[in-house]
Amino acid sequence: MRQRTTVTRAYQALTAGDDTRACRDIPDAACKAQPQNFMRHSIALGLSKSADGLADPKLVLSWLMTHLGAPAALVGLLVPVREAGSLLPQLFTAARIRALPQRKYAWAAASLGEGIGAVIIFLAALTLQGALAGGVILAGLAVLALSRSVASVAYKDVLGKTIDKGQRGTVTGVAGSWSALVVIAFALVLIVFSDNRAVIVTAALALAALGWVMAGAVFAGLTEEKTATDSDKTSFSEALANLRYLREDRQLARFILARGLLTSTALAPPYLVVLASGESGAALEGLGALVLASSLAALVSSYIWGRLADRSSRRVLILTGLSGAVAMALTLAFAASGLAGSFWAMPLALFVLMIAHQGVRLGRATYLVDMVGPELRAVYTAIANTVIGIILLASGVFGALAALAGAATTLAFFAAMAVAGAVTAYGLKELGDGRSD
């Protein structure tokens, strides 16, 4: 009883005293278990996010592959493998996840799979060099990404079943805030002990693997009510048939378009690094500063974005599109004035950009969960993520082609995408609880 009281008090403190006496779109049993579920969500998701930061493909794995002497072509495949592998399969896994009476076990198993992928990368870092190291790291990242695709579909569905509307953005924000502290500690260690970066990065990969395994164990303990299953709708043709919702639901199509345009906040960071380092690759020497800037952005913004998303996830998408464009414009201004290569300009620009990206991630997740009922939540999530995977691949290829004209041109293109995303999000229906009015 004492433990339950402590959990309830922590829950009430984190939700800023919101009225928890009645729930709006989850059953009474789930409502009663919400304080405990809220804390389990915060811990499990925070562990997963911490592991993400310790094994970040954009910064950490890029540095590791370069350090091990992997070809640049393999390094360039990190982000496409990570993003496409985690998004494209979801249209075809959603039906099977929907067939499970309790979807928490799908997330827990997927988290274990992510841990296995991290172990593969860890072993490659310990034992391999050159192209072979790069190939094995990509294979481990593919395992991690495919596991992530299952976790992404399952999580939104479980979140919608166990946490009430008005608290979902908050629980995600809490997880993002405390996990950012873990990554900040990692960044500080990289900065203070910069001569031992390889040892530190390798140890971080082992911790990431452990974090994903622990996250799965915590998540499996959620109180999740069993729901009716759709076991006869798991075929490939059924998955393709679900694409009809893009035509039938204009809000879904508009949401996916907005989210697709806002992927520019995820695609832009490598080009900020290019502007900072030029052809010398010197930016990799500042790995700790870049990781620190990224994690500080998550720390200062995740909880705030989460609270704002519970009031109006639509407005969060608008604000993040505009702020992402501002960050890229700031980078271009630094480059034009000759400051892009200085020790502070790149981390500052990345800090602003990652604040915007955190908002995009929180806003899109909250909006999608709130816009549809539990019977279609997993399907809509899979449709959105599969289409976004295709958009990311296309944008990544286009960005690589645009890079032939220079990183500045590419960033200008991504900034225009971010503004277009904000404009598209403006036309979405308002799904907030009205407390912001």
Name the beta content range.
under 5%
Task: Look at the structure and give the mean pLDDT.
Answer: 81
H and E string: HHHHHHHHHHHHHHHHHHHH
Low-confidence residue ranges: 279-283
Question: Main traits of this protein?
Answer:
437 residues, mainly alpha, Growth Hormone, Chain: A
Model description:
The chain is mostly helical. It has one domain: Growth Hormone, Chain: A. Helix content is 78%, strand content 0%. The chain is built from 20 helices and no strands. Helix 3 packs parallel to helix 10, helix 8 runs antiparallel to helix 11 (197-219) and helix 17 (287-336) packs across helix 20 (407-426). It is globular and about 55 Å long. The two termini are 39 Å apart. Residues 279-283 have low confidence and may be disordered.
In short:
The protein is an all-alpha fold and 437 residues long.
List the helices and strands and how they pair.
Elements: H1 2-14, H2 28-32, H3 34-54, H4 57-67, H5 72-75, H6 78-87, H7 90-98, H8 104-127, H9 130-162, H10 168-192, H11 197-219, H12 236-241, H13 244-248, H14 250-261, H15 264-267, H16 269-277, H17 287-336, H18 345-371, H19 374-402, H20 407-426
Helix pairs in contact: 1-3, 3-10, 3-11, 6-9, 6-19, 7-9, 7-19, 8-9, 8-11, 9-18, 9-19, 10-17, 10-18, 14-19, 14-20, 16-18, 16-20, 17-18, 17-20
